Amino acid sequence: MSHNTFGHLFRVTTWGESHGPALGCVIDGCPPGIRFTREDIQADLDRRRPGQSRFVTQRREPDEVKILSGVIEDGDALVTTGTPISMLIENVDQRSKDYGDIARQYRPGHADYTYDVKYGVRDFRGGGRSSARETAARVAAGALARKVVPGMVVRGALVAIGENEIDRANWDWDFVHDGENPFFTPDRSSVSVFADYLDGIRKAGSSVGAVVEIVAEGVPAGLGAPIYAKLDQDIAANLMSINAVKGVEIGEGFGAARLSGEENADEMRMGNDGRPVFLSNHAGGILGGISTGQPVVARFAVKPTSSILNPRRSIDADGREVEVLTKGRHDPCVGIRAVPVGEAMVACAIADHYLRHRGQTGR
Amino acid sequence: MSHNTFGHLFRVTTWGESHGPALGCVIDGCPPGIRFTREDIQADLDRRRPGQSRFVTQRREPDEVKILSGVIEDGDALVTTGTPISMLIENVDQRSKDYGDIARQYRPGHADYTYDVKYGVRDFRGGGRSSARETAARVAAGALARKVVPGMVVRGALVAIGENEIDRANWDWDFVHDGENPFFTPDRSSVSVFADYLDGIRKAGSSVGAVVEIVAEGVPAGLGAPIYAKLDQDIAANLMSINAVKGVEIGEGFGAARLSGEENADEMRMGNDGRPVFLSNHAGGILGGISTGQPVVARFAVKPTSSILNPRRSIDADGREVEVLTKGRHDPCVGIRAVPVGEAMVACAIADHYLRHRGQTGR
Amino acid sequence: MSHNTFGHLFRVTTWGESHGPALGCVIDGCPPGIRFTREDIQADLDRRRPGQSRFVTQRREPDEVKILSGVIEDGDALVTTGTPISMLIENVDQRSKDYGDIARQYRPGHADYTYDVKYGVRDFRGGGRSSARETAARVAAGALARKVVPGMVVRGALVAIGENEIDRANWDWDFVHDGENPFFTPDRSSVSVFADYLDGIRKAGSSVGAVVEIVAEGVPAGLGAPIYAKLDQDIAANLMSINAVKGVEIGEGFGAARLSGEENADEMRMGNDGRPVFLSNHAGGILGGISTGQPVVARFAVKPTSSILNPRRSIDADGREVEVLTKGRHDPCVGIRAVPVGEAMVACAIADHYLRHRGQTGR
Amino acid sequence: MSHNTFGHLFRVTTWGESHGPALGCVIDGCPPGIRFTREDIQADLDRRRPGQSRFVTQRREPDEVKILSGVIEDGDALVTTGTPISMLIENVDQRSKDYGDIARQYRPGHADYTYDVKYGVRDFRGGGRSSARETAARVAAGALARKVVPGMVVRGALVAIGENEIDRANWDWDFVHDGENPFFTPDRSSVSVFADYLDGIRKAGSSVGAVVEIVAEGVPAGLGAPIYAKLDQDIAANLMSINAVKGVEIGEGFGAARLSGEENADEMRMGNDGRPVFLSNHAGGILGGISTGQPVVARFAVKPTSSILNPRRSIDADGREVEVLTKGRHDPCVGIRAVPVGEAMVACAIADHYLRHRGQTGR
After folding, report:
1. Which of A75, A127, B312, C194 is buried most deeply by CB count within 10 Å?
2. Who contacts D223 (Cβ-Cβ below 8 Å, separation ≥6)?
């Protein structure tokens, strides 16, 4: 991953800030002949879209995707031609406001200070490039990546908000996208707990972190590489590139550090269909950097957004000590909308490795 | 990171298997004029070297580095010329043995099965490319990377073995490399606990995981990029590329998911020297993907090696169900020797970003 | 250069087809703080724009550039922020027509056949991705690249059309952009010759090739690398990536093959200002892949466009033998409008190496 | 191509200087299961080896290749495992001598001055990294690349030395490697002309340039991409990366600039076997950046080496004006030994695109 491009054969470049006229992505290296519809892309964007419940930012953005290149029409469908696919999403709700002091203040926990140190110039409006809006471009790219690997299904779910964890015994993928579920939680019983908890956070003008889990099923065995270009490594890099993500783990993850070799190693038998089966999946579907054919399981930790209504001590660009509080529309738990983003980033990583594997081995 | 090369401007390519004649690395893009000695490289290699206590593999390898290109001699020192630096380490103790059944058996938790699925051919001797021996090449590269960033000090420590965690109140960097400390633990009081625990593991023919923490001090503010090519992301990718690593976190990491925005955001004041100071370091030295000037803090989880003496159910390459047990010399806790490896990977990531930042900004 | 991205630190990704809604580019890695105006970009686009004389295609495109990201406004100027800069140019004059047979016929000398063999699907409208329109995106990127290297001036000129070469004794850079000069020729005396010649070509429904020379002055010494990432090599790759280019040379180029070592080597003396001077520039400003500080000189050969009115034998996608003739608006000498494109590609290559050199050496 | 690595999926990194202990390459991304022998590699190295006639340098190097990783033995053959393949060639004949003044003098036409400007430090022995010895590593890599594309045959020939061109009517591939042919010329009648001419050059202490042509047959149609990552562009970059190369052309190359569209476009018919045939090959086997299935034809110009016995004016590192003459063993026409090097670079470019095409399209 270099600069604003990620992927090696399925390459995604994103661009755009929160308060510019638009944002978008260019997908390069997509196989030709992939059929999809604009609605396939839009559906994923809609899941990430703000303003859908009181638990996410109230910014109103239709997030309508335009597809500008790299496809031909075939009836109602679009078909990729193998040339770069440019997608664009206009920014509509860039509420004009007086940024006033905030333009020069360094909000604690935000990248304001580091931007200024690095670049010496900064688009302070809405977080600039670090805005969660940028993730719309990733989601658009991921919607196409899903089509690249035949049979692959990538799904995500919120597994913890703050101290509150789901009960895994209640895991229900169907519930994740249920209309009554504003959290992408797979555990119906967690909704009221999360809602009460987040209402408290929201009313207190505070914010809280979360943990998201992504599961990719139907990933062929053999994708990845032994030690560099490990599939888990590229998934980790892709997830860690999402705003506010501070930790990533695969399979047992940090839990593996507490296991013995006997406990952690997934035993194998021959299945009834004459194919190998694993008796467990501590590895999260990846052994030695290469997919096993089991579901690929990754989790990432999202820190609480630093945009909070409570004043915090900081400095400004002139070196003055100030108190900062961030008004405006913010997600009390930015981790919620990170679920479709995480799915997209995992889908892109796997699609890329699918093409790389095919390139190297012809399989 | 692509294939067996990592880094963008400070680029490291490694090669070699456990049981071939040698292994090594090529470092490309190193600045010219960097002075170092062969001993600088050797010292780091010696810290990673096996056979130094009963808690690591008894394979005996001198791990003597040869420097084949990219330098000129200047008195006792070597000076980089800006051309690729090739380093080579011979494999000496490749005990010849009858691999017998193991050649076709898939050891649970190992990459044997995935190698065969991916490549259709496999060097089964000693784990092939996935051997921990490969990390010697990384350590050699990292020893040079340390020289690239003026004033940077990168140190690592083992902070947990299995269920046993260190007491952070006892943290003592000096003790990490004390001759009486076979664990790179920073907590003197943990040595006997770890020793008793690992003796039990070792005698039981088992293995256990660990958590390693890396701290880089003296990292200039401004390295990295907002959302892709984030410094934390490249550190995560580099660490996740190490054998057996299944989780990575920066600063508070997964703990950040449980914090509020107020708790997690590091407040700022002006220091007595007229420079900004942070009042805490939950961010682990990186905000919005860019270094803050505070210490960069990363942790990674190492799974227990799957080479254990206790039989486990598996299959072989012919689809026969078998019981596998792995004789030979192995690390009961491969996480111990991962400490200098983690330091090297963090040093390489930061050196790369140091050059990238200088390239883009001229600073 | 990989897929549709070129450059290593100053990275340009282009997208778009001739007959889609728009085309554009994303420039990633641009230094922050570069000041420019939309007019700077537009001026270069205007030089490349079709329809400006009877010697180029009559397609009417305003080629108005929109800048969508990566900049902030500062008075009348734009200032780069260090984040990706997205530029977009709408396609306006996509004359709807009945492509009829042409949709399945392989035009000789065009990429129709190879597209179908490669991708199995093809946007046959106007040459698809291979349209000369794509070069507008390069020109936009190049206009920004020019700003990256302080003091650099990159200029191009047409030095031959078909068999007709300019007289180098008449070289006049000022004349190249003279309003009476539809050819970018630096030789005033060549205009009537070129005009008569091309009128004949045009009326015959034929086309002809050309040679373009690019000269970059003010290039600092030290850019490039000894054998890979040679500055001349990256210039060659950039120029060869332009549609219809079939040859590239640096300095004496193919002429160097006929010289002796004495003739070809540029001697050096100390200048009056105490700085080294070269007594000739056979090397074209690049020795051992690294810039000398002299003007960088490159030439490239553009083949005649294969869109001609005279019937040629070919086959169609069904394997039928057909006669093909290409109606529509075409450049009789596509090499003319390649002049600003060549400038842009050389500017991008040098800007990239300027940043790379600064990254590696700190100078 | 970045730094000292070229290729995208079939990636070659080379390292080493003329007078260090060794040089070599690491080939990453090679498909698994490729069978070859050490002799396959050695045979190509032997063709490039110095000292084989009076027309090339008298340096005596056995150039014996060692293969250190990435393969397993299978009887007499080696089989690639898909992991990086490290090859090493020791430098044997590093005649120790007193470099004296030459260490600080800038030889005209050499990269001495530009190295010093760029790096501020320089390995002046034997040209350092710019030595023709480095090309041995490319030849070794190319020997393996040839095996990657089934049925591909890549051959090269010298087509001009100084003003002397071959007669293409006499082209005989068999003669190129005839023992009586010290020039890789395909024209038996040229040998005595070239020999007399070069004897004169050699005795005069001078040197001369040459033109080399490479022809790759058996290249599948469909490799490459429309405008960036064009097959011809990557071939051009690979050839231009060879020391002393100053021009590259594909098919008609610069000659295409003088042709009309009718003359240049290759007509097509259906062949007797029901497959498309081209009636000519002006395109050099590449249309729109994508291979047509016809032979790929590239030519490159090699400048005369600047190591000549006749004194030339220059300066030294202290800014003193000096006269330089280069004693020692040199090739009077370095273009001769460039023939196998050019073959290797073309083979590597095509192998890389073969894998990339397979990755993107699955074909």
Report:
1. A127
2. C118, D231, D290, D291, D350, D353, D354, D356, D357
